[in-house]
Amino acid sequence: MPIEGPVGFINQTQHDDADLWVIWQAAQESVAKQIDLNPVQQSQTGAPAQTLPGNAIALDTEPREILVAPVQDVSSTALSVATGVQRPDPTGLIACPAPCTVRYTPAYSTYAQPATRYAASWEAQEDNFSAILQYEFENHILNALGYDTKWR
Question: What does the H/E/C string look like for the chain?
Answer without folding.
Answer: CCCCCCECEEECCCCCHHHHHHHHHHHHHHHHHEEECCHHHHHHHCCCCCEEECCHHHHHCCCECEEEEEECCCCHHHHHHHHCCCCCCCCCCEECCCCCCCCEECEEEECCCCEEEEEHHHCCCHHHHHHHHHHHHHHHHHHHCCCCCCCC
